[in-house]
Write a structure and sequence with these properties.
- There is one protein chain.
- The chain has 682 residues and is mainly alpha-helical.
- The protein has 7 domains: 18-193, no CATH class; 214-311, no CATH class; 324-425, no CATH class; 429-477, no CATH class; 494-546; 562-624, no CATH class; 627-681.
- It is built from 35 helices and 8 strands.
- The strands form 3 sheets. Strands 5-6-7-8 form a 4-stranded antiparallel β-sheet, with no helix packed on it. A two-stranded antiparallel ribbon has the order 1-2. A two-stranded antiparallel sheet has the order 3-4.
- Helix 10 (198-211) crosses helix 15, helix 18 (404-411) crosses helix 19 and helix 26 (521-527) packs across helix 27 (529-538).
Amino acid sequence: MVIYLLPFFTDPYPNELIYSAISRYHFYNGNINFVDTLEELFKSRTVVPSIEFGSHFSTLVQNLGSNYSVESLLAQNTIYPYFAPFITIERQKKVLEDVRTNGQGIHGRLGISGSKISRKQGLYYCSKCANNDINIYSEPYVHREHQLQGIDYCPHHEMKLKMYPVDYRVFSRHGYIRFDTRKMDLSDLQESDSCEFKEVQVKLAKMAYRLLQIPINQFSVEKVFQKYRTLLRENNWILSNTRLKREELFKAFLSKFPPGFLEKYESPVKVEGQNQWLQIMLTNYSRNSVHPFRHLLLLYFFVQDIDSFLEIKEDNGPFGSGPWPCLNKAAKHYKDLVISEVKLIRNNKKDVPVGKFSCSCGFEYTRIGPDKNEEDKWRKSRITAYGNVWEEKFEELVNMKISRKEIASELDVSERTIYKLIDLQITSPELTEKYRAELLEWREKYPDANRKQFQTDLKKTFTYLYNHDREWLDAKFPSKRDTLHTPNNPNVTLKNNTENRIEYYRSLLSEAIKECPDVTRTQLWRKFQRACKYLSENDKEWFDANLPQTRQATTVTNATDWNLRDQEYYQEIKEVYPELIALEKPTRITGKLFSKRLNIFNLSIKSYVEKLPKTNKLLNEITETVREFRIRRCCIVIDQMLEEHNYVRWEKLRESCAIEAKNFKKIKPDLEEYISKRQKNI
């Protein structure tokens, strides 16, 4: 087919839609029927005009000449650049093929079909822009920035857009509407209700216009998604590579916009519910395309404009891109980038990512993330394994008889770590017997205590036995997991394991009933839910025979004398309190402790105690918070130190009371005040 170039064409004005340029061509060419214009431009009389995107660009470009190309028309004279950064590279290529031919499928590829954001039902203009066009070009035209879906304001003059009074839907199936000044409202007056959400909408309009200036192949949703991850990490809204702090993020997002704004612009967000557009955009972008207007909402939430967003580096995970350094100061490759992989561990307590870095020399360390700058790469939070290289260097330094401070500096660890490691090396039959005796004595004193309590109360003893006499320790004091769940001995059958578990739960309930004979079945269920559930399912005969019978509801004829009960409990608590305070080993004073000591089961139930005003007041005065108990325990040790040495060693005080450094720091001012008062009295 021979292609003849058109004798002339109305070249598009800046940011003019190709639709508008064709409408002007039809007017100036003097054609009466639009199908004649279609024949001249597209060599077809059945082309249906598309306002936003256009179609059959291959034929159109051949007719217009070498000054035009499919890519230039798509980038400069359609609204496609508004969508381009938020679709995949694969879809970008298919859109280019769509506009070369009939344009079918383009709305689906861009996510318009599945989006609930309505398309503009008409042509829009800004009265100031139209007046400027008339002054410069002697006629108004359709600006593509005024046809963007979701945008109601002009980005240049911050005026609300007006709809041209001719409806393209009833104008002509094959027609092109040209702006006629006689039908346009060119006044600068604004409607009284036009400023309801103006501030937000103007910012969105400016961002949308800036998108039209970006090369259509510069970005894709793959890169945009990684930039979002960077912003999420900077704001601490991300738990891992796949999980968000969803509830916190959604609440913050909702609070950013004026009430009713998101609903008006068809982009509602609910804190509850799944598969919402915001969640898809931030976690599963490849599943569905999300409308660009909603991407602009997210950028507004992050306080970004298009230029600042484009400068953001793509996310490489909470610890950046590898390789990472080995921080083993004893190794020759110290600080060399030799670790190629990082294992992500989730910290459930703080909701922060933790990275585990393992070197071939055996040295392992963790770091709490995310890294905020390049210097964080050389930081470690905790050493989890030393490895042979480090341990050999440690042995060498210990044998050199140098100070522990120097060893700590040489190996880049704390002095306390060096002390612990040297203590662990010291072993002898005498020490083993000593620590065994300590454990047996402790168990005799606290027969119902578990292994965790032993580890807390006698940490040094436990550490020694665990490292040097574990077989004896496990035999005398097996862990709960070994006893109830997974036996270390492969010959122990599942049947035996079940029997052990039943026996353990039976002893728990029997002991509770023995301590408090008046306890009800309901109270036992509340306190020992796991044990009751397991026995009721696997040992029902024993369970029904030994637990208190279910009490039938009866009509109470004599009301409880709460005043008398209040007085009795008050007096009993007041008498036993001095004994608890005077215990050789300090114990935290709680309602549960009184409940156990006095065999009054309900003293640990808040709703019950509130019926006893005098008792409740006394308990509020004498029971201790964790912080108050720590202070009391420290004050006892301080008194001993002042009597023996007339000074207090803070580190020894902290270790004696087994308080973590961060918690000890919080109570130190109270302890300093106590010491000051003690010294004045002395």
